[in-house]
Amino acid sequence: MLLDNGSSANFVTQSLCGKLGLSRRSVSSTVTGINSNSSHITQSCSLNIKSLHNDYSLTVDCLILPEITKALPSSFIDIQNIPLPMGISFADPSFNIPSAIDILVGAEVFWSVLCNNSIDLGKNQPKLYETKLGWLVSGHVARLKTPSSSPVCHFISEDSNPDLTRFWELDTVAAKRSLSPEERACEQSFLTNTVRSENGSFVVSMPLKDDPSVLGESFQMAKCRFLS
Questions:
Q1: For the residues of 113-176, what is the DSSP string, one character each?
Q2: Which InterPro entries does the entry mention (predicted)?
Q3: CA dihedral for 40, 6, 130, 137, sign (positive or negative)
Q4: I need a surface site. Which of 12, 91, 116, 117 has the fewest CB within 10 A?
């Protein structure tokens, strides 16, 4: 589970929702994240979260997503060089091992579980924060940089109103757009070869890509099929 004080909503993956057999509700919500990327969500559920170390628990309403984010941390962290105090109960005992994120809880839960105590491990070291779920490790860590590792940012806002703009955009024809070479050739063919006859009807040439001779001797075959 990821605690994210930048999120205004809670989320759970479809996979965990299925494993827990949670009942789903229909919703219509638009979620916007980093770089204004948007996702439309149609399902939600409720689930109960409990601490590993005490009786603290809470029920949260979550929006259901196929995927929340990549595995975190993005690479393995060697805790041998981190002076972690003895007797600390971590909310996630394997916080240093990259793991899938199944649940993201937002600001409302974040501030309700955060306690007053913290431990500063020193310069270029992470800090420990006490919560009702156990101690959290956050901040600077020295780790091996790999080509696959990259920064991860979570900042999510939710709009509970349906975003009708998506549908308007589908029905909107752009005022200007660049034409492909074939489209330009078709327009030029129309302007050049379309005429109006004396009786007022339009005469339009067939816009063939190649010379009609490439069709072969198909007239007799077509005539026979028509007559039959």
A1: HEEEEEEE--TTS-EEEEETTEEEEES-------TT-------BEEE-S--THHHHHHHPPPS-
A2: Peptidase_aspartic_dom_sf
A3: positive
A4: 116
CA–CA gap between residue 150 and residue 130 (Å, rounded): 27
- Same domain flag for 128 and 28: yes
In a domain, 175, yes or no: no
What is the pTM (predicted TM-score) of this model? 0.61
- Find the helix or strand (DSSP H, E) in which 103 lies: strand 103-105
Residue 16 within a domain: yes
CB hemisphere CA count around 89 (13 angstroms): 8
- The answer, yes or no, to whether residue 218 has pLDDT greater than 90, is no
82 plus 12 within the same structural domain = yes
Residue 44, CA distances (Å) to 60, 66, 131, 168 in order:
11, 12, 26, 25
In this structure, the answer to whether residues 117 and 196 fall within a common structural domain is no
Q: Please name the helix (run of DSSP H) or strand (run of DSSP E) that holds residue 20, with its range, or none.
A: helix 14-20
Q: Are residues 9 and 85 in the same domain?
A: yes
Q: Please count the structural domains in the chain.
A: 2
**Amino acid identity, position 198:** E
Range of the domain at 187: 181-227
Q: Are 187 and 40 in contact (CB under 8 A)?
A: no
- Residue 222 to residue 87: CA distance in whole angstroms: 89
- Report the CATH number that the domain containing residue 108 is assigned in CATH: 2.40.70
* pLDDT tens track for 55-82: 999 999 999 999 998 888 888 888 888 9
Same domain, 158 and 213: no
